[in-house]
């Protein structure tokens, strides 16, 4: 039972990480149709910002480093929107996606050139690394926090999207952007808000990823975001609840396989999961909550 | 099957260019440079295969290198001499450590294996549209990489697979690249290709006139996989030593950049993009290694080639999203220029809205 | 209120609107008529900045706004009820109305206006918290018009308000437009369906293949059998 609860917490925290990232991808996609392949670099930027905060400003208190990571990711997401994605906003979706892809390669390699290939250590707050004992149960603080923060962030997001004008406008823009403009709501503001939220969610994920890894390297954003993309597709690409469900489903699947696969084939975990997803998509191409691809034009 | 003369004309022009590159390297270049030209030919075949799918279906494909990896490893496992396998691959499953096929069987075998995999992946692919389709191709690449890395008994895992017979030559690669241009052109301008491109532009309208988009897309997918499997076999049989990282993101980025920059909607674009990006790549490689230029020693800049590829894609998308060449083939350039003049003259007349 | 001069709109080689000038005075109800594909919607979209003008100037409320963005024009007091209603189907009726008032910050005023429209259209009150897509076509049109009025515009432009609706519903909508006229609102109504709109309009323009072929009072148009028959498919008086 203890073992089961511990694994459940594992699944919840890993799933939470995927859900945060998948939500960020889905928000940007639903509002402006951009497939943000540079989303992973928001994590990397958050990580390097934490590293630089220690190196240059001598921030010692690990508690102060955390907001630096989150703020850097938000700032960078908004910056990317302004300089890279606004010029291709009206272009076909492929153009924006490849643009994001190119940006991602540039950022990874800039980090290689200017910071170096080796991972850079970032100190983690000691209390994050502690375990909480509940009876015979040992729960790592980092995982409890990650699960809690994810659920908190998702709740806040739901409140935001339902109760603020800009949130409602973002939901409307997902279906019909030009009519949203006819309400006098500035397109730039809607898009910027979407990017800021995606940066915030990626920044939160970055903080926890950093806490677990203890170091930042140029390619650290790639794998989590690949998983997040897969989670978003499983949930139904562009659907926000779908992104959350897909994220948690993927987290649960990974932890379950990790716990049950014999070690000789454990390395194939991702191959198994992706193949299972392929079969799922064979029967339900639109994902869990997505709308059927109609092989036709959006109206 | 009849081939339009315009297709032959265009293919001949491009083929001539490729042959010229290949044979001048054969005649004049040193082995080191011949090697670069060989790799260029392999990359060109990859880009052509990518064009067959991406250019006609309008779906970004990140998984093509996965097929190349499968084919390269398949031919390696089938054709490597038993003597080498005894030390390098003693625990191979299915009794493969005791098998050594002549290339005559190993090459078609490797291609067939790749196509079988492509068949099953394709079943999933054609049901997806747009973004999920692209993510699916990316996931496929990761799956192939994970399997190559972890099936240690069959692939030696992350360690290099060595001892593959070195049988491919620059002239073979050049010849295949030339034939590849012709095939890619024939597909693009065939009834299927035209229907597929039309359906990518407007799926509803194409379906209304009876175009079976999924079937056509599947055909493009399989033909693309064929190109990639040939590239994989050629590559393995030329370098003799392969490892999983040869078939991962680096090559994916490079070949995607080539196609995008040339213009993914035309075969001419694929060829031009491959040439332009390859030239730039050699220059950045040179700078990356920190050469002495006029007495100054430049610092090593690891990551510069990657930076270059990213910059190429970003600038391409920002300023010329249709690529250098655009959607038109080489023989259409002249024709369209003529037409352009005519329609300019005609546009002063009132068109019907 | 609105003076648009020498407007041209091209889509690539297609000239959708050619050198069109229209003038809408304060408190006027102006009809913009013409067959399908005449360029009416293109003209409207260009006036509100959704499609770029190739030529021409627009003066709105005594200010030159030729290059202003859509968002700016709405904030200056234009409002549009788009063709096909374009309500936000996934959003509730209430959220639709709320977005209509997005440019305002006077909470009390917004609540007051919301009440006003809910009183006028009780069905909207009944469905206030359910997704707008479940409304009937006529109800959606009521919502769409109410939504565009939530910004308290000076000029309301309606694009084919009767399109695809049953005659009884169309009557209801035109009744509502008469009410708006009584409120003192300036209206520009784009219609294919000429007979109904001419009963409430002061003046009318007729557009054909992108150019104005008639302009005058609604009465003049009703009495010019040639124009009515040729462009609007109606018998003149």
Describe this structure in words.
The complex is a heterotrimer of chains A (299), B (353) and C (237). With 299 residues, chain A is mainly alpha-helical. Chain A has helices at 2-32, 39-55, 62-85, 93-114, 141-163, 165-173, 177-182, 187-213, 222-235, 240-260, 269-283; strands spanning 120-121, 131-134, 137-140, 215-216. Chain A has a domain at 18-219. Chain A contains eleven helices and four strands; from the N terminus they run ααααβββααααβααα. In chain A, strands 1-4 form a two-stranded antiparallel ribbon. A two-stranded antiparallel ribbon of chain A has the order 2-3. In chain A, a hairpin with a 2-residue loop joins strand 2 (131-134) and strand 3 (137-140). In chain A, helix 1 (2-32) crosses helix 9 (222-235). The model of chain A is unreliable at 293-299 (pLDDT under 50). Chain B has a domain at 5-243. Chain B has helices spanning 5-28, 31-57, 64-79, 82-88, 103-125, 130-150, 152-155, 170-189, 191-201, 203-208, 213-239, 249-262, 267-288, 304-319, 330-346; strands at 292-293, 296-297. In chain B, a hairpin with a 2-residue loop joins strand 1 (292-293) and strand 2 (296-297). In chain B, helix 1 (5-28) packs antiparallel against helix 2 (31-57) and helix 2 packs parallel to helix 8 (170-189). Chain B is globular, with a radius of gyration of 22 Å. Chain C has 237 residues and is of the alpha/beta class. Chain C is 39% helix and 26% strand. In chain C, the strands form two sheets. A six-stranded mixed sheet of chain C has the order 6-7-8-3-9-10, sandwiched between helices. In chain C, strands 2-1-4-5 form a four-stranded antiparallel sheet, with helices on one face. In chain C, helix 3 (93-100) packs parallel to helix 6. The mean pLDDT of chain C is 90. The chains are: A mainly alpha (299), B mainly alpha (353), C alpha/beta (237). Chains in contact: A-B, A-C, B-C.
């Amino acid at each position: 039972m203890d073992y089961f609860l511990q694994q459940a917490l594992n699944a919840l925290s890993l799933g939470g990480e995927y859900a945060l990232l998948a939500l960020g991808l889905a928000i940007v996609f639903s509002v402006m149709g951009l497939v943000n392949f540079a989303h992973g670099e928001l994590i990397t930027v958050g990580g390097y910002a934490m590293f630089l905060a220690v190196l240059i400003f001598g921030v010692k208190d690990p508690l102060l480093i955390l907001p630096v990571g989150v703020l850097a990711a938000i700032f960078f997401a908004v910056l990317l929107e302004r300089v890279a994605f606004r010029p291709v906003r009206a272009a076909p979706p492929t153009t924006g996606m490849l643009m994001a892809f190119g940006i991602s390669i540039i950022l990874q390699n800039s980090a290689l050139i200017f910071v170096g290939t080796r991972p850079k250590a970032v100190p983690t707050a000691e209390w994050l690394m502690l375990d909480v004992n509940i009876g015979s149960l040992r729960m790592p603080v980092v995982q409890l926090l990650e699960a809690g923060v994810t659920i908190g962030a998702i709740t806040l997001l739901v409140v935001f999207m339902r109760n603020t004008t800009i949130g409602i406008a973002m939901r409307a823009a997902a279906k019909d952007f030009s009519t949203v403009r006819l309400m006098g709501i500035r397109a730039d503001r809607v898009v910027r808000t979407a990017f800021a939220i995606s940066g915030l969610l990626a920044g939160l994920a970055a903080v926890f990823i950093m806490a677990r890894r203890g170091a930042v390297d140029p390619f650290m954003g790639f794998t989590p975001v690949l998983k997040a993309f897969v989670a978003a597709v499983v949930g139904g690409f562009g659907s926000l609840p779908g992104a959350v469900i897909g994220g948690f489903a993927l987290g649960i699947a990974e932890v379950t396989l990790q716990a049950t696969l014999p070690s000789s084939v454990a390395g194939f975990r991702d191959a198994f999961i992706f193949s299972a997803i392929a079969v799922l998509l064979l029967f339900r191409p639109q994902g869990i909550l997505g709308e059927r691809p109609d092989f036709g034009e959006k109206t | 099957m009849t081939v339009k003369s315009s297709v032959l004309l265009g293919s001949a022009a491009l083929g001539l260019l490729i042959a010229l590159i290949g044979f001048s390297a054969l005649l004049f270049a040193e082995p080191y440079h011949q090697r670069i030209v060989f790799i260029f030919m392999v990359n060109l075949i990859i880009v052509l295969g990518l064009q067959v799918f991406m250019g006609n279906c309008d779906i970004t494909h990140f998984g093509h290198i996965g097929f190349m990896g499968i084919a390269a490893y398949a031919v390696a496992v089938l054709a490597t001499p038993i003597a080498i396998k005894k030390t390098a691959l003693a625990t191979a499953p299915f009794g493969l450590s005791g098998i050594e096929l002549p290339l005559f069987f190993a090459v078609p075998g490797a291609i067939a294996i790749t196509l079988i995999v492509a068949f099953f992946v394709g079943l999933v692919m054609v049901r997806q549209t747009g973004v999920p389709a692209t993510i699916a191709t990316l996931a496929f690449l990761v799956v192939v990489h994970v399997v190559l890395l972890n099936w240690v008994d069959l692939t030696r895992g992350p360690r290099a697979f060595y001892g593959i017979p070195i049988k491919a030559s620059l002239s073979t690669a050049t010849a295949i690249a030339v034939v590849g241009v012709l095939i890619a052109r024939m597909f693009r301008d065939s009834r299927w290709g035209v229907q597929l491109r039309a359906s990518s532009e407007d799926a509803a309208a194409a379906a209304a006139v009876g175009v079976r988009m999924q079937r056509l897309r599947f055909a493009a997918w399989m033909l693309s996989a064929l190109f990639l499997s040939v590239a994989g076999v050629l590559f393995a049989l030329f370098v003799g030593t392969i490892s999983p990282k040869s078939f991962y993101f680096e090559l994916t980025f490079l070949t995607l950049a080539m196609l995008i920059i040339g213009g993914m909607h035309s075969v001419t674009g694929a060829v031009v993009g491959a040439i332009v990006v390859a030239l730039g790549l050699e220059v950045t490689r040179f700078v990356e290694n920190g050469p002495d230029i006029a007495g100054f020693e430049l610092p090593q800049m690891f990551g510069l080639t990657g930076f270059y590829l990213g910059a190429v894609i970003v600038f391409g998308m920002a300023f010329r999203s249709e690529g250098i060449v655009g959607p038109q083939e080489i023989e259409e350039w002249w024709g369209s220029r003529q037409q352009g003049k005519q329609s300019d003259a005609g546009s002063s007349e009132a068109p019907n809205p | 209120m609105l003076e648009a001069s020498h407007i041209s709109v091209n889509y690539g080689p297609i000239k959708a609107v050619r050198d069109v000038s229209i003038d809408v005075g304060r408190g006027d109800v102006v009809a913009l008529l013409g067959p399908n594909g005449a360029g009416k919607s293109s003209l409207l979209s260009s006036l509100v900045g959704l499609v770029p003008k190739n030529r021409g100037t627009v003066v709105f409320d005594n200010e030159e706004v030729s290059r202003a963005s859509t968002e700016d024009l709405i904030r200056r007091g234009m409002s549009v009820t788009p063709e096909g209603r374009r309500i936000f189907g996934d959003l509730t009726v209430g959220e639709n109305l709320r977005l209509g008032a997005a440019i305002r910050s006077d909470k009390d005023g917004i609540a007051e206006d919301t009440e006003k429209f809910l009183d006028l259209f009780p069905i909207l009150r009944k469905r206030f918290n359910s997704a707008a897509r479940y409304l009937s076509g006529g109800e959606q049109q009521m919502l769409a018009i109410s939504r565009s009025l939530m910004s308290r515009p000076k000029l309301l432009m309606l694009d084919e308000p009767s399109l695809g609706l049953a005659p009884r519903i169309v009557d209801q909508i035109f009744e509502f437009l008469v009410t708006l006229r009584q409120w003192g609102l300036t209206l520009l109504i784009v219609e294919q369906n000429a007979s109904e709109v001419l009963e409430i309009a002061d003046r009318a323009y007729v557009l054909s293949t992108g150019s104005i072929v008639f302009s005058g009072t609604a009465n003049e148009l009703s009495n010019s059998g040639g124009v009515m028959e040729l462009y609007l498919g109606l018998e003149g008086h």
